[in-house]
Amino acid sequence: AQKVTQAQTEISVVEKEDVTLDCVYETRDTTYYLFWYKQPPSGELVFLIRRNSFDEQNEISGRYSWNFQKSTSSFNFTITASQVVDSAVYFCALSEMDSNYQLIWGAGTKLIIKP
Amino acid sequence: SAVISQKPSRDICQRGTSLTIQCQVDSQVTMMFWYRQQPGQSLTLIATANQGSEATYESGFVIDKFPISRPNLTFSTLTVSNMSPEDSSIYLCSVEDQGGSGANVLTFGAGSRLTVL
Questions:
Q1: Which residues 17-36 of A have a C-beta within 8 angstroms of B?
Q2: Which terminal CB of chain A, N or C, has fewer other CB atoms within 10 Å?
Q3: B69 vs A51, B33, B79, CA distance in Å?
Q4: Mean of the pLDDT values across residues A93-115?
């Protein structure tokens, strides 16, 4: 069965600190996608990244970076030099490549950035 | 990416009543999805709504409780029927991404926050 675990329910850091959000997944599929979404207090989920199972290269986008490791079934998300605007709930998700938009969602990690 | 408008953004409802949530997309999309997010919880897919066919419901959700309409390629409604306090949730409309982010990427509306008293 597929499963996504975000063990960190809530993280609180002071602005400008680096923070890593963990995501561990389970799947028997050899081809799959992994995702991160951000849900700010306004409620709308914002897509951040999709990674396919063939591509283990880490990705960096500004202050955001993602570390995908198939050996540990993890897809962790790091925010460097955090800002108050990064405060949100972050969701990790998994889907089979041919699942037609059927995503398995983690429970989410609430990130609080204190000024 | 597509822009999704949901109405109402929030509402307070009485037990036993029904409420219809509207989802309007600014472009034509084949697949629309309705999610429920209970307080402090993750997202749960209610159903997939394709134009021209009946919605496909996930386990635990039934048409009598959550009737869905999909009259065209830009619009859908979800009705929450005979509401109870357990139906208090955010209901989110989403569509297949139109912005080239790739397969299985979803674009979401801002959600409709329902409180049932």
A1: 33, 35
A2: N
A3: 33, 12, 9
A4: 91
Are the beta carbons of B11 and B24 closer than 8 angstroms?
A: no
Q: How far apart are CA B86 and CA B102, in angstroms?
A: 35
Select the residue of B42, B45, B105 nearest A106 (Cβ to Cβ): B42
| Chain B CB contacts of A95 below 8 Å | 104
pLDDT digits (tens, 9 = 90+) for A53-62: 998 888 899 9
A108 falls in which pLDDT band (50, 70, 90)?
very high
Stretches where chain B sits below pLDDT 50 are: none
Structure tokens at B85: 């306090």
Question: What phi and psi values does residue A56 have, to the nearest 5 degrees?
Answer: -95, 5
Higher pLDDT, A57 or A110: A110
Nearest CB partner across the interface for A101, out of B31, B109, B111:
B31
Q: What is the 3-state secondary structure (H, E, C) of A49-96?
A: EEEECCCCCCEEECCEEEEEEHHHCEEEEEECCCCHHHCEEEEEEEEE
What local confidence, expressed as pLDDT, does residue A57 receive? 85
- Per the model's pLDDT, the better-predicted residue between B17 and A44 turns out to be B17
Please give, rounded to a whole number of angstroms, the shortest distance from the CA of B6 to a CA of chain A. Answer: 11
Other beta carbons less than 10 A from residue A72's beta carbon? 10
Cβ neighbours of A108 in B, within 8 Å: 41-42
* Chain A / chain B CB contacts < 8 angstroms: 58
